[in-house]
Specification:
This protein is of the alpha+beta class. The protein is 32% helix and 20% strand. It has 25 helices and 26 strands. The strands form 8 sheets. Strands 6-11-7-8-9-10 form a 6-stranded antiparallel beta sheet. Helix 20 packs across helix 21. The chain is globular and about 105 Å long.
Length: 719
């Protein structure tokens, strides 16, 4: 039985039908006037109009004005979205000032940039600061986020911009340089150099990305590390780390991974200091990992594994145990080794500790693995390796693809499914290393609307006889098949990530929320050492066989003369009907199915517009006859699934009904139909069902059976 929870493109003629499916899916948004959310290339939705940094800067320079951002204004709405924070209640004189009003000779950078340029203000975003400090240690990554050639001298117009990775794309965020201050001092993130402002401006851009400074309160360094790199982050509980953790950390450091750590607390108090000088519920950056040579004879092998860590406060709050600043253990380290380590004992928040103490006193560890885009040519020249990556966008829609976890076997199979093929094992193993990352989208930006992270996870199944299995996998497969891997539990985090060792083969990944009918968009990413192929495990869009049960449904006999006379009764002598006359016909003939409510005006208008071949604004008899024959068949299908006679179908029944009518749909199209047609309860009325069928038929007729399409080698050109 199935388990339960406790809380590159193919080629060849066979790919033509898959291309048709993709073409139809791209055609749907314009047909239904709705946005496709599930797509293999993620689309971050910008808030407000797109702002072009260079265009705006040039316009400001030509007018001799400093930029004032209308989207993220210098008002309280940019500071908070709920109640006024305590630090603002205590500080009565909050003023937004430009750097030239805060300091003499303001600079973007003072003597370059470093991890020491980051000091926390009154905002509880140490998780962000830990990631910023880590970012500053990697020039290539840093300038990917902080574009060069920005200053307070040349071409200064009060405007700056920063770039963040958001769900598969890099987003350019434009800000003005007005910063919140109190008594002339910066309120939030700041540099110890009072005239250096890159870090404060970076924080402002990140706050704008998420809607307000308050949106940055509380989080994990994982989130910011990924937004700075596009990488995938792994999280470890120090009580459950693998035996080779130091090797994992050392390899991660050698591959430019960003690493952070923290100490959880059983109390609600934030940032409580321990006797060892460490701060609970506070994010630290790991800045170096090294096996250090020592003259201490008690150290086996002549080396000691050490970890260098930085507190983003950048002050005297440091570790005071063995290997801390000035501790006696450093006497056994040769001077040349100290020089190679860059050892200093400054009061700067940075300190060393042994790996054993690191595991003992820290409780949580996060490693951000970088994708190929974040590595430079120099990295490859130095022998560094890259991950092979794949990603898919998707969404869970109430009543359609939000099936919940395996505790809900009747609906679990409704979740989106993704098929991954692993062909080659790792170099030093007979299995494949795979990192699967499931990220829910836009939850922090939706904080102002009360949105929180949903509890999410995923399951991986091995498809031994994959060519004979249905697409998508059905309820019986999940009821009687054990999983090959899964998240240990479901978590209410932005992203859930797991590392697996799997044998080469074909697998199906099923991402889900814990409970059914919880809606969200998500991004599924796969990192593997060797190439992987990822595709949706779903039906291909097209025409299939009409269900035999439809032909068995009782239908009143009608010959063409009877249909013509019925049509003439409403059309008049011109034998054409506009949308109002069509509504009269349908309301009269389908009174029982609509429970006397009739067809909506919008649906009737749309039908005429779609079926009006000569663009007269009316339907002639032949056009109507074709529509009427289809409606009779669709009505017979509707009766098969409207078992209680309510006049409504659920979204899942809609897919089954359209399949019975001879149309093959996948989950992504079904999501679109549900967004467009279903009620808040996820139900679809008879007239909406008919409209949906008309549009699906029109779409398929137009895209599959036109001569133009059959001659197209590349359907993208036709669309």
């Amino acid at each position: 039985m199935g388990d339960q929870y406790s809380n590159g493109e193919n080629t060849g003629d066979g790919n033509f039908f898959k291309k048709q499916t993709a073409a139809v899916e791209r055609f749907l948004p314009s047909l239904f006037n709705i946005k496709v959310l599930g797509d293999q290339s993620s689309d971050h939705r910008t808030r407000g109009p797109i702002q072009d940094f260079y265009q705006i800067r040039n316009e400001c320079l030509s007018r001799g004005q400093l930029f004032e951002d209308p989207i993220f204004p210098a008002t309280d709405s940019s500071l908070y979205f709920s109640k006024k924070p305590e630090y603002l209640q205590e500080s009565k004189n909050i003023e937004w000032k430009r750097p030239k009003e805060i300091a003499d000779n303001p600079q973007f950078f003072v003597d370059g940039y470093s991890r020491f340029d980051v000091q926390q203000g009154v905002l509880g975003d140490c998780w962000l600061l830990a990631a910023v400090a880590n970012l500053a240690m990697h020039p290539h990554l840093f300038h990917q986020v902080v574009p060069e050639e920005q200053s307070f001298e040349e071409n200064y117009a009060g405007i700056f911009h920063f770039k963040f990775w958001q769900y598969g794309k890099w987003v350019d965020v434009v800000i003005d340089d007005r910063l919140p201050t109190c008594n002339g001092q910066l309120l939030f993130l700041q540099s110890p150099e009072t005239n250096e402002f890159w870090s404060a401006l970076l924080e402002k851009a990140y706050a704008k990305l998420h809607g307000s400074y308050e949106s940055l309160k509380g989080g994990t360094a994982v989130e910011a590390m990924e937004d700075f790199t596009g990488g995938v982050t792994e999280m470890y509980d120090m009580d459950k780390t693998p035996s080779n953790l130091f090797s994992v950390l050392l390899k991660a450091y050698e591959r430019n991974s960003l690493i952070s750590c923290s100490i959880k607390s059983n109390s609600n108090a934030c940032e409580v200091k321990t006797p060892q000088g460490l701060i609970k519920r506070h994010a630290y950056s790991v800045t170096k990992i090294k096996n250090v040579r020592t003259d201490d004879k008690s150290q086996q092998g002549g080396t000691v594994p050490l970890v260098r860590i930085r507190n983003p406060w950048g002050n005297e709050a440091e570790w005071n145990g063995p290997w801390s600043d000035g501790s006696p253990e450093w006497r056994f380290i040769p001077d040349h080794e100290k020089e190679e380590l860059g050892l200093t004992f400054d009061v700067d928040g940075e300190f060393w500790m042994s790996f054993q103490d690191f595991k003992t006193y820290f409780t949580n560890l996060e490693i951000c693995n970088l994708n190929a885009d974040s590595l430079t040519e120099d990295d490859y020249n130095q022998g560094k390796k890259k991950w092979e990556t794949n990603l898919f966008d998707g969404e869970w829609v109430r009543g359609v693809t939000a099936g919940g976890c395996r505790n809900y076997p009747e609906t679990f199979g409704n979740n989106p499914q993704y098929r991954i093929t692993l062909e080659s094992p790792d170099e030093d193993d007979d299995k494949c290393t795979v990192i699967v990352a499931l990220m829910q989208k836009n939850r922090r930006a939706k904080k102002r609307m009360g949105a929180k992270c949903l509890t999410i996870g995923f399951v991986v199944y091995h498809l031994e006889d994959h060519d004979r299995l249905s697409k998508p996998l059905d309820i019986n497969f999940f009821k009687y098949t054990e999983s090959a891997a899964s998240t240990l539990s479901f978590f209410n985090l932005r992203e859930v990530t797991c590392r697996f060792k799997l044998s080469p083969g074909v697998y199906c990944i099923v991402p889900s929320t814990f409970d059914p009918n919880e809606e969200a968009e998500f991004l599924l990413r796969i990192f593997s050492e060797n190439k992987n192929n990822l595709e949706e495990n779903d039906e291909e869009v097209g025409v299939g066989e009409v269900d035999n049960r439809v032909h068995d449904q009782p239908q009143p006999e009608q010959n063409e003369d009877e249909v013509k006379e019925f049509f003439r009764k409403h059309a008049g002598d011109d034998m054409e009907v506009d949308w109002m006359e069509l509504k009269e016909i349908l309301d009269d003939a389908l009174r029982e199915e609509t429970h006397n409510k009739g067809f909506s005006k919008d649906i009737c208008r749309s039908m005429v517009a779609m079926l009006d071949v000569d663009h007269s604004g009316k339907l002639g008899f032949e056009e109507f006859k074709s529509l009427w024959n289809d409606i009779r068949n669709w009505r017979a299908v509707f009766r098969l699934y409207d078992r209680d006679g309510s006049g409504y179908l659920s979204a899942i029944e809609l897919r089954q009904a359209l399949n019975s009518a001879g149309y093959r749909l996948n989950n992504r199209i079904l999501n679109i139909l549900a967004h467009r047609y279903s009620t808040k309860e996820g139900m679809i009325s008879f007239d909406d069902y008919i409209m949906c069928a008309v549009q699906i038929k029109t779409m398929i007729d137009t895209k599959y059976h036109s001569n133009t399409l059959s001659k197209c080698a590349n359907l993208d050109e036709y669309i």
